[in-house]
Amino acid sequence: MSFLQPLLLAALPLIALPILIHLINQRRFQTIRWGAMMFLLTANRMSRGYAKLRQWLILLFRTLAIAGLIVGVARPLASGWLGLTAGGRPDTTIILLDRSPSMRQQGEGQVGTKLDTGRHQLARSLSLLGSAKWVLIESTTNTPREIESPDVLLNLPATEPASSSADLPAMLQAARDYIQANKSGRTEVWICSDIRANDWSAESGRWATLRDAFLELTQSVRFHLLAYPQAASGNMSLRVTNVRRQQGSDGAELLVSLKLTREDGGQTSPTRQRGVDSTDDPSLALRASVPISFEIEGARSEVTVEMSGAQFELKDHRIPIERQKDRGWGKVSIPADANSADNDFYFVFDQPAVRQTIIVADDANAARPLQLSAAISPDPALKLAAEVLTADQLSTVEWDQVSLVLWQAPLPDGPAADAIQAFVDRGGQIVFFPTQGLTSTVFVGVSWQSWIESPDGITIETWRGDQDLLAHTQSGAALPVGQLQVRKHCGLTGEHIPLATLKGGTPLLARVTTNRGGVYFCTTTPAMSDSSLAENGVVLYVLVQRALALGAAVLGNTRQLVSGDVSGEQPTAWQQVAGPPEALSTEFAFHGGVYSAGERLLALNRGSAEDQAAVLADGRVAELFQGLDFARVDDKAGNLAALIQEIWRLFLVAMIIALIVEAALCLPKNVTQVVSA
Amino acid sequence: MFADRQPRSFLDTGALSRLAAVPLCARRPMQGNVSGRHTSPHRGASVEFAEYRKYVPGDDLRRLDWRAYGRSDRFYVKEFEADTNLRLCVVLDTSGSMEFGSTGVTKIEYARKLAGSLAYLASQQGDAVGLSCVANGIVRNIPPKRGPAHLMNVFDILEQTQPSGETQLVPVLHELAETIRQRALIVILSDFFVEPELLRGCLQHLRFRKHDVSMLQLLDPLELNFNFRRPMRFIDMEGGPAIFAEPNEIADRYQRALQKYADELLAVVLESAVDFHPVTLDESFEQVLMRFLVGRTRTKGVR
Fold first, then answer.
1. Which candidate, B98, B103, B126, B102, places its Cα nearest to that of B114?
2. Burial of B124 (0-12, 13-18, 19+ CB in 10 A)
3. N or C: where does chain A have the smaller number of CB atoms within 10 Å of the terminal CB?
4. Are the C-beta atoms of residues B91 and B202 closer than 8 Å to each other?
5. How far is CA B282 from CA A562, B102, B276, B279, B288, in A?
6. CA A370 – CA A364 distance, rounded (Å)
7. Residues A393, A430, A355, A595: what is their CA dihedral angle, to the nearest 10 degrees?
8. Looking at the complex, does the CB of residue B275 fall below 8 Å from at least one CB of chain A?
9. Dihedrals phi, psi of A559, to nearest 5 degrees
């Protein structure tokens, strides 16, 4: 039981009033000279049984009536979930709203989505609870904004569903910063989320920091989690994995590869968790034919696929397009199901741009293998260009068209460093190789150390095969990094992440953390005297081509982006080409769709993690808030019943009943006249 | 009548003149000294034929019925009913509890009115009137006598008597039963706050002595209803211990006790053939007396 006006409960001692009045009344007796004492004496000798009980009952019901009135006036709330948490009006209420696509999931047989239901529940409950100040932090921008009242949640565009994933730790961090900066007093933090694992990043180290940060706050902060953890049974999600434009002799066509994933509710998810492929079990294999519709710049086509099991992949589905159509956009969709957010996927296609590499080299021996690995195209459709320059010629480079810089010269400084930095910030990739004449110049916090020679050759001990430039191939085979021999390498100072480490611990390939773009340091050169990078060209070629592809991705006229992560773009200048009509221009970056930015076409989609339906276990959520004042309630999408209700009427009715019973008990019995005929 | 005196506070001349229309009758034969209007256990000289009786020597020859002799050749004496006066003994309870009264009139005042009026009415029809004031004993007692002077004495005593002391009605009634000559009309004015079972004995004693006993029980409405609101401390008017009571709490049991007492008393008076009249103080005394007198006319004359 919790109360909206708990201070009024201070009046509860008033329930002693009837007892006091009773005692006072006892003392205010009257004296009378009485004749019929014999009846009084007889009455006194009689059993008091019911009469005494009646007196106590009357006193009890009077007390109950006052208690009912006081409790009723204190406005009690009926809620299993507020528990003993809410109490009094907080100074600030911060609402953390998860707008991620998974929140668009509908309840079974219900119309409302989780987000809609959550907004309504919050608006209703919070209006009731009241607060001096309302702050909304929604999952796209993670910035606190003050709102007038919780009712605004129902029609604020910033509370509509978005395509970008939520980052709960970041939202909580924003809340924490707000509380600290604004000295918000007694604060309640309401989190409305479906506790998807990808949104919550429960394994992130930020949680521990956040917990400590909240515990350090002087003001009291309470957390309420309005959770919608239900899985969407049978929900299908669609993801385009690859789109290529192919020019044939008889015209052009698009090759679209896509993947369908089906959630099977409570049936297959446990087996999946145990690592058993659900499709192995025929009883769990659910056959379904799914019509997939393609829309290429407004032209629609449809293909129906037979799906059994939890996943389906369509490889290189051919869609003929006009021969002249070099670039454009498309949309793939499947029929509506439990979650409408993952039924569409947008893509853009274009003639691949020329992938240009600038090689800044002092040593021609080293530059040659680099140039070869940068200029030989792995795909006939791709055009590659590699130009060897010296550092002095950098000013002539048109950076806008460069995807990759291979730098085998003293580390840049001055204007060259600025130009390279701008290139990296724009998303360009650069790989530094050491040169003979080492300088002490520092670039992005890293500088070369002295050369180390090992004539017998050192092999590579470990390398990152899971990601980045040396990752395994798509077929899962490892790159032959272990076969490399390094005869001469250079040390590195400064902060870097080793991607490959030589025996002895010196990094061979290292990455420096940047906001965008990639800055890599390779501690040896492809020169024959230094390493077998050129001899065993596979690693060098893959490395250079992967870096080139990464650099080209930001340069092309088209770009696939993950909603919410549009760094390097100017979403304010975008024009919507396709996508949800309700998306506001200020929120384009968070809504899936196709947008044009000048000449370029951008396709925005939800992140791949959104298709994984893993929900955080209850215990895990509780662990995240360990030590904090935390209450959780599970709601269901489409739930129409209010989470909390005022039940003062109940207490007033109880009071009235108590008064009526009291009156009935007080009623004098019909006095039987002694006078007999 | 009261030319040289202050009018008695307990006499209402208007009411008395109205009540004079109804005679005070006895339910049983009375034994008076002089001729009167009440039946006597003896034969007498009234106009009402009673019986023929065989002549026995010594009978007055003037009372021989010569016609009967003519018809049957036997001597019969014709006898007539005797009419006599009655002796009205008013027993007035002057115990402390008689001082109670919540309606502006106390029981003793009410009893004075009843006693005074009855005495006057009886005196007016030539009956003898006596008065016994009793509390824990016989306080004042004047035997029944006729005549206005005696009536004045009765009135004086009525006027002077004050309630005090506890009720010892049972021994007093036994005493009176013995001391009052047989066949008198005894009217007891009291609240009868005595155990009915104890009353049974003395009533039967009175009945054995061939008295015609009437009981007028005076009760105050407050005693009947017991409608107090606040806690009360009841002080015994007869000197007993005080009782503190919460009326709400005790009213039930008080009523039960009262009802039980009333039932038992009724049983006792019915068994003892007592002319019983419960009276509440808010009733008009004239009506009470009228009811009393009229009730008695119905049962009069049984020999």
1. B98
2. middle
3. C
4. no
5. 102, 9, 18, 9, 11
6. 10
7. -120
8. no
9. -155, 135
The residue written with tokens 């506070």 in the block is B9
Residue linked to tokens 């005929």: A677
Inter-chain CB proximity B235 and A33 less than 8 Å: yes
Q: Which residue has the tokens 């004050």?
A: B162
Tell me the C-alpha distance between B296 and B300, whole Å. Answer: 6
A49-73 helix and A648-666 helix, angle to the nearest 10 degrees: 160
Question: Structure tokens of B250?
Answer: 């005790």
Pairwise CB contact (< 8 Å): A34 & B235: yes
| pLDDT given at position A264 | 66
Q: What is the CA radius of gyration of chain B?
A: 23
DSSP sequence for A233-284: EEEEEEEEEEEEEEEETTEEEEEEEEEEEEEEHHHHHHHHHTT--GGGSTTT
CB contact under 8 A, B262 and A671: no
Locate A76 and state its tokens. 């009690």
Report the alpha-carbon angle A547-A550-A554, nearest 5.
140
Q: What is the pLDDT of residues A250-269, one digit of tens each?
A: 788 888 898 888 876 444 43
Phi-psi region of B104 (alpha: psi -120 to 50; beta: other; left: phi over 0): left
Residue A279 has a pLDDT of: 45
Task: Single out the residue of A207, A288, A158, A1 nearest to residue A626, CA to CA.
Answer: A207
* Residue A526 near residue A356, CB atoms below 8 Å: no
ipTM greater than cut 0.85: no
Distance separating the N- and C-terminal Cα atoms of chain A? 62
d(CA A81, CA A630): 11
Strands A497-502 and A460-463: antiparallel
Alpha-carbon span A590 to A606, nearest angstrom: 9
What Cα–Cα distance (Å) separates residue A665 from each residue in A54, A61, A66? Answer: 7, 9, 17
Taking the C-alpha atoms of residue B165 and residue A168, their distance in angstroms, rounded to an integer, is 95
Q: What is the pLDDT of residues A610-637, one digit of tens each?
A: 887 788 888 888 888 888 888 888 877 7
Q: Is the pLDDT of residue B71 over 90?
A: yes
| Per-residue pLDDT tens digits for A19-65 | 998 888 878 888 888 888 888 888 888 767 777 788 889 999 999 99
B98, B107, B193 member nearest A38 (Cβ): B193
> Taking residues B1-26, what's their average pLDDT?
81
Helix ranges, A335-414 (H): 364-375
Q: Which residues of chain B have a CB within 8 Å of the CB of A25?
A: 230-231
Phi first, then psi: what are they for A235, rounded to 5°?
-70, 140
- Answer whether B49's CB lies under 8 Å from B80's CB: yes
Question: Per mean pLDDT, which range of A450-459, A558-567, A655-664 is the poorest?
Answer: A558-567
| Contact assignment for B233 to A40 by CB distance below 8 Å | no
| Confidence band for A568, pLDDT divided at 50, 70 and 90 | low
| pLDDT for the residue B175 | 92
**Which residue shows structure tokens 């106390």?**
B106
Q: Which of B228, B253, B258 sits opposite A51 (nearest CB)?
A: B253
DSSP three-state, residue A657: helix
Q: Taken in order A17, A18, A22, A23, is the CA torsion positive or negative?
A: negative
Lowest mean pLDDT among A327-331, A634-638, B189-193: A634-638
User: Cβ of B258 and A34 within 8 Å?
Assistant: no
Q: Mapped to the 3 state alphabet, what secondary structure does A420-485 carry?
A: HHHHHHCCCEEEECCCCCCCCCCECCEEEEEEEEEEEEECEEEECCCCHHHCCCCCCCCCHHHHCC
How far is it, in rounded angstroms, from Cα A153 to Cα A125?
12
Beta-ladder partners of A463: A500
